[in-house]
Amino acid sequence: MKDKTADQTLCPVARAGAVVGDRWTVLVLRELFARNHRFEEIQAYTGGTPQMIAARLKKLETDGLVTRRVYNKRPLRHEYHLTKKGEAFFPVMFALRAWGETWCKSPREGLSMNYTHLSCGKPTGLGPVCQSCGEPLHWADVVAERSPKYQKERDARWEAFKASR
Q: In CA terms, which of 34, 40, 125, 151 is 20 to 30 Å from 158?
C-alpha cells in the first residue's frame, strides 16, 4: 500500500496523501477520533470489510499514527489508539468536517456533530478556532455530540453489523 513515488518528492501534500489519502483510512481515523478503539466498532461504523480495515490499521500503525494495545489475552484482542502523530491529524479531520458540512450537505440537514469547547464551554462552530472564544481547537479540548439523526444512522449501522455476524 506504500506509495513509493511520495518518497521521491519534497511535496508535503503528496507525502501526506500517501499516508492518509484514501477514503477508508480517513474513515478509520474518524472512528478513532470518535473514541471507538475496537476493531469491530471501526468496521461497523465505517462499513469496511475486515480485510480493508485491518490493512488500514496496520498501515496507520506502521506510519506511526496508531498504536495497538492488548485488551484481551484469550482470545488475543487489541484496541487501537491514536499516537501523538495521529492526534496531530485532528485539524485536518476538523477541516474535512467543516468542508463537508458546508459544501456536501444541504443546510436543511443541519450539523451532524456539535462540538463544545471545554475551555469556554460554548459551541466551537466549524473551526479551526472556537467561534465563541477564538482559541485554536485541539482534540483534547473538545467534546462531541452527534445530532439525533446522525446518532440514529450510526445506531442502525451498529445493529446491521451485529445482525450480519
A: 125
